[in-house]
Amino acid sequence: xxxxxxxxxxxxxxxxxxxxxxxxxxxxxxxxxxxxxxxxxxxxxxxxxxxxxxxxxxxxxxxxxxxxxxxxxxxxxxxxxxxxxxxxxxxxxxxxxxxxxxxxxxxxxxxxxxxxxxxxxxxxxxxxxxxxxxxxxxxxxxxxxxxxxxxxxxxxxxxxxxxxxxxxxxxxxxxxxxxxxxxxxxxxxxxxxxxxxxxxxxxxxxxxxxxxxxxxxxxxxxxxxxxxxxxxxxxxxxxxxxxxxxxxxxxxxxxxxxxxxxxxxxxxxxxxxxxxxxxxxxxxxxxxxxxxxxxxxxxxxxxxxxxxxxxxxxxxxxxxxxxxxxxxxxxxxxxxxxxxxxxxxxxxxxxxxxxxxxxxxxxxxxxxxxxxxxxxxxxxxxxxxxxxxxxxxxxxxxxxxxxxxxxxxxxxx
Length: 413
What we know:
The protein is an alpha+beta fold. The chain folds into four domains: 58-70 and 342-411, conserved putative lor/sdh protein from methanococcus maripaludis s2 fold; 76-86 and 251-327, Elongation Factor Tu (Ef-tu), domain 3; 93-119 and 211-248, CATH 2.40.50.100; 122-209. It is built from four helices and 25 strands. It has helices at residues 23-26, 28-54, 122-164, 170-209; strands at residues 58-60, 62-64, 66-68, 77-85, 88-92, 97-102, 109-110, 115-119, 212-214, 219-224, 231-232, 241-242, 244-249, 254-261, 273-278, 281-298, 303-310, 322-327, 343-347, 352-354, 357-364, 367-379, 382-387, 394-396, 409-411. The strands form six sheets. The protein has a six-stranded antiparallel beta sheet with strand order 3-19-23-22-21-20, with no helix packed on it. Strand 20 (352-354) and strand 21 (357-364) form a beta hairpin. The longest helix is centred in the middle third of the chain and has 43 residues, at 122-164. It starts with 22 loop residues before the first helix and ends with a strand.
């Protein structure tokens, strides 16, 4: 080992100035740019996390945007009931037989006299043809009897003339008179037989007509109770037969039947205006009036049945719909005229001001947004608003002064 073996070899650190520079060495600015962009992204993410973490979540109480009928605030009392067709029928056949034809389904409209269905009719049609043949035969027999009566009448007149001149015997006269009376009686008997045959024919025609099941009035088919092939009987005499073929209702006769408490019936009079709100159409109440107060009380419920007629019906009103009836004061009362229609209403405390605008804070996904509104009439604790709101929207019931658009919130239980 020589004296220089302990010194490090630095020849590997020598720079070869003859070698071409690398791409990284040629572009040091590009590398610095990438580092700066990466640092900015990290800083921005950190700022976002800091801001998000520092945002305060506000606990709020909420309410719901309601659709309110202003006329309901004038209500003297409220009752519940159902829409009922005052003209309704379970249409059945007058005869017994197997249902051969059924021309309607649920929801179909029919006019009075329209054929709803028909029973098998081969037997009654055969009976009708037999009755018609009997009528034709009776007419032929009558024609023959009338011819014999005419002959007897002519013979009797001739013999009577001869007898008057004593050219015919009394015996010939008596025989001619007897034949004439017999011919007249025979005609009368034949006429009676014809009348009976005509009656039999009419009965057979009725039996054929009874196989047709017709609509008794203009209406709508509510239910279908039988199908083709089933036996239909007027009173459903057996378990295998059907009674009513369909249930038909006159949709123009729909009214609301409501139960009014005995203690409040004194507030109701005939013709009193009402506001009818259907559970199926809560946003569009109908106006109506008291038509009839049934003069008897329900002992079990202590109520009196009251019938309310619609001022105007449309196709959306259907039998058996649930309804709420607000009985309103008469139009000349101090409460003023009845105003139909609905408005959106919120608690009065929910309406506040931000940056000179009247707003309501709507809650969606645990975040609030300020919705500009216009304040309208007041209805007790509620106030009318007009804006980009819908019935059922969740809003802050009483926003604090520092609540701002975009704040995160939690709902108080």
